[in-house]
Amino acid sequence: MFRSRFPSRLAGLGLAFALVAGGAPLAAQEAGTPAAKEPATTTAPDDESSLPSFFATTTVTAVGREVDTFEVATPVTVIPALEIERRAPNNAADLLRDQPGVDVNGIGPNQARPVIRGQRGLRVLFLEDGLRMNNARRQTDFGEITGLVDMDAVATMEVVRGPASVLYGSDAIGGVLNLVTKTPGAASGAGLSSALDLRYGSAADQRRLSASAGGRHGRFSFLLSGTYRDSDEYDAPTGRFGDIRVTSPVRVEDSGLRDRNLYGVFGLALGDSQTLSLRLSRYRADETGFGFVDPGRIGGDESALVRILYPYQDFDRATLSWEATTAGFFAADSVQVRTYFQRNRRELVNDIFIDIGPLMPGAPSSSVAVDSTNRTDLDTLGLRTEAIKLAGRRHLLTWGLDYYRDRSENTDASLSTTTLRFPFPPFERVVTTFDPIANAPNARNESWGLFAQDEITASDRLRLTVGARYQNVATRARPTAGWQTADLDFDDDAFVGAITATYQVFAPLNLLASWGRGFRAPSIIERLFNGATPEGDGFQILNAGLTSETSDNFDIGLKYRRREAYLEAVYFRNEIRDGIIQDFLSPAEIAALPAALQEQIRESGAQFVVQQRNLDRLRYVGLEIATGYRHRSGVTVGGNYTHLSGRRLGRSAAPVDDQYSDKIAAFVRYEAPSGRFWAEYRLRHNAATPVRLELGEPLPAVGDELPAFTIHTVAGGVSLFERGGFSHALTLAVENLTDELYAEFSNATFFRPETGRNLVVSYRIRR
Fold first, then answer.
1. How far lies 99's CA from each of 169, 364, 559, in Å?
2. Is omega for the bond preceding 364 within 30 degrees of 0, making it cis?
3. How far apart are CA 373 and CA 437, in angstroms?
4. Which CATH fold would you assign to the domain 2-766?
């Protein structure tokens, strides 16, 4: 009874929480408000001790409030607004390529997704302003696309490396990517600011226009922005990548995109201690895809051709936030209540051709062609309420509750054409079947959680953070044509916790250690999908008995920071239990399936049958080192190194997904003391690593090794002039300077190369 009543009463409970907790100065700004002051810093007692470090950053994601990254044990990367503007990324994942412990999966302007410490897809939690973007309708390896959020609306990007389930619940096993969006300026006086950005990229003939305007008048503030982008399919350059040789530029099909993004935030000061804000975003994208290269151009296997397209993607989101900022209440010194609604409409098309070989000696090859379409309508309603309480001098408590509900409705249509060829009359027979039954039933996924965290000042040198969460997750299959939905429901709950510690050896040096437990509930697709896999050569049967997977992560390391230098080194081990994996059924298991299902499998032309199962136990270990030094002349040098290795320890024989073992990134930058111009050189190197294959699996076109590659980038910018209150600036960048043929390792075996040399020109006008 408790489970069934709770979701329907959660909104009321959230309001009651706010009334009990009171309102009050928020110890940290909301996870949507960038820092408005110089970050605190710890420096050595020298002549410059009163000045902040050049490398100081603050995070709102790591502990749920604004805090100096130097003071927290959680490994976190923060990319501020200035760096985002200089890099001019297509999407958030583009900024991960040369950061420690992270990687990129997917290609193109909007299909790239984050990989954190070897984990991808739904094992990484994607947030906007601390609120979930993940949903239960995505596949395991394909989490929500980062292209839904316009980078021109982002003030800060934060990446938490390692589990963060205490604060954020399911999916945060590998880590968290949080995009903190811009808000109206903090100036109290009336005024209007505006901006216009024009950008061109040569590799895909990309044209991009972005405009924004914001201001404040009395108690009211607003910020509006819009972006239009048109990008063609790009060509990969000539060269060699492992066993792949390209002698002339090759088109990466389905890599183009035309999309539009609108963003608005409206704020109202209800008094000196309370604010109300409304954030609205709207995204529309025309046809784009996962990327496809003709196997005949790269010496690959042409017996199975798979093209995956999104003819359209529509996304809308509205967030209403209330926060109070007056001290003196028993339960909290600050409180914040946020509710959000988002709607995701998308169409997925699979165009698959499979050569099934000759039916008999002397016969031509037979084939199966499948054209399938899936349309998904997904609505998400969520609520997050949190409070902060300073309890005495040594305890800072963060506590709250959250809830979300995904409501998925989908339709599928599949047209299969099997062409049987014989060496005698009738020589050819064509069999066509049409399947209008959805591959997964309509479903509702609900989750609610309670969490609490205590930041403890144990002594002048030792700080501890202890947290715990209870989470309940339930999936309910809803009436769907062609489906028997009885016995398909799912209920699970989990307790997770985390402990972190920082010890100050001396002012510029902190030692850190942490343990965190994460969990991830299975998605609707993992549990209930029944049909041909998106790759086309397999068939997945549902598994209503699938349960959640959990992980334990340990970090140990140090942080050193002075005004002019910093060093961070972290060793980690993350072990996942009951890992959900696509398990291949044996011939005996297939023979035991119902006759109707066996016939469906035969008609699909599938070469294998799989089921998602809790078979996996994975252990990832790694080392992350980042350092930087800034000279008084304005020259800054820095870089990072990551070592990552993964092993499977359980019953599963499947290899660890394609990933780098060693990655190095470095940069040197000059910034003129006047601030008029800057110039930068960046380098990224992935070392070679073996391809990990299942027993009997054929080698991919790239060969038995993911080959090393090195990418060079030069960039610079200059403030041109100011006229009529408007400043004009120009930024130039040449990416992949040496025009190298390469693919990110997660895109290498199913070969989807990156762009060749790319000149990016940005012209900005600000007021």
1. 25, 51, 16
2. no
3. 11
4. Maltoporin; Chain A (2.40.170)
Which pair of tokens denotes residue 420?
């049987």
The end-to-end CA distance of the chain, in Å, is 57
Q: How confident is the model at residue 651, as a pLDDT? A: 65
**DSSP letter at 523?**
P
Query: Using CA atoms, how far apart are residues 548 and 172, in angstroms rounded to an integer?
Result: 13
Report phi then psi at 202, rounded to 5.
-75, -30
Non-local (6+) Cβ contacts of 9 within 8 A are none
The residue type found at 649 is: L
Give the span between the Cα atoms of 754 and 236, in whole angstroms. 6
Dihedral-angle region of residue 4 (phi above 0 means left; psi in -120 to 50 means alpha; beta otherwise) = alpha
DSSP per-residue codes, 416-432:
EEEEEE-SSTT-EEEEE
Query: Do residues 513 and 500 touch, judged by C-beta distance below 8 A?
Result: yes
CA nearest to 656, candidates 139, 119, 102, 98: 119
- Rounded CA-CA distance 667/678 in Å is 13
Exposed / middle / buried, residue 359 (Cβ in 10 Å: 0-12, 13-18, 19+): middle
Cα 367 to Cα 750: distance, rounded to the nearest angstrom: 21
H or E stretch at 4: helix 2-21
Mean pLDDT of 257-279: 93
Measured CA to CA, the distance from residue 526 to residue 613 in angstroms comes to 9
Between 427 and 29, residue with greater pLDDT = 427
Closest-CA residue to 279 (of 442, 68, 130): 130
pLDDT number for residue 188: 41
Helices (H) and strands (E) in the chain, counts: 8, 41
Mean pLDDT value of segment 10-19: 43
- Residue 33 above 50 pLDDT? no
Hey, which bits of 50-136 come out as E strands?
A: 58-59, 67-68, 76-79, 102-105, 113-116, 124-128, 131-132
| pLDDT of residue 555 exceeding 60 | yes
**CA–CA dist 613, 494 (Å, integer):** 19
Question: What's the average model confidence in pLDDT over 655-681?
Answer: 92
Kind of pairing, strands 206-217 and 191-201? antiparallel
Cβ neighbors of 575 (< 8 A, separation 6 or more) are: 551, 552, 553, 617, 618, 619, 620
Match 């040789």 to its residue by tokens.
Answer: 245
**CB neighbourhood size of 425 (10 A):** 6
Phi, psi of 330 (to 5 degrees): -65, -45
The pLDDT assigned to 236 comes to: 94
pLDDT at 353: 84
pLDDT of residue 457: 95
Q: Which two tokens stand for residue 610?
A: 């799989």
Q: Rounded distance, CA 391 to CA 331, Å?
A: 10
Q: How far apart are CA 91 and CA 108, in angstroms?
A: 9
Over its C-alpha atoms, the chain yields an Rg (Å, rounded) of 26
Kindly state the percentage of the chain with pLDDT values over 70. 91
How sure is the predictor about 8, in pLDDT bands with cuts at 50, 70 and 90? very low
Helix (H) or strand (E) holding 28: none
Tell me the residue length of the chain.
Answer: 767
Q: Are 133 and 144 in contact (CB under 8 A)?
A: yes
Read off the pTM.
0.90
SS3 (DSSP) at 527? helix
Q: What share of the chain is helix, strand, coil (3-state, %, to 5)?
A: 10, 55, 35
pLDDT of 11:
44
What are 176-198's pLDDT values in tens digits? 999 999 988 644 445 788 999 99
**CA of 514: how far to CAs of 574, 623, 625, 729, 746, in Å?**
12, 15, 17, 44, 28
pLDDT of residue 24: 35
Q: Assign 462 to helix, strand or coil.
A: strand
- Of the pLDDT bands very low, low, confident and very high (cuts 50, 70, 90), residue 692 is confident
- H-assigned helices in 521-615: 524-528, 587-591, 595-604
Please report, for residues 104, 391, 465, the alpha-carbon distance to residue 395 in angstroms, rounded to integers and kept in the order given.
38, 5, 9
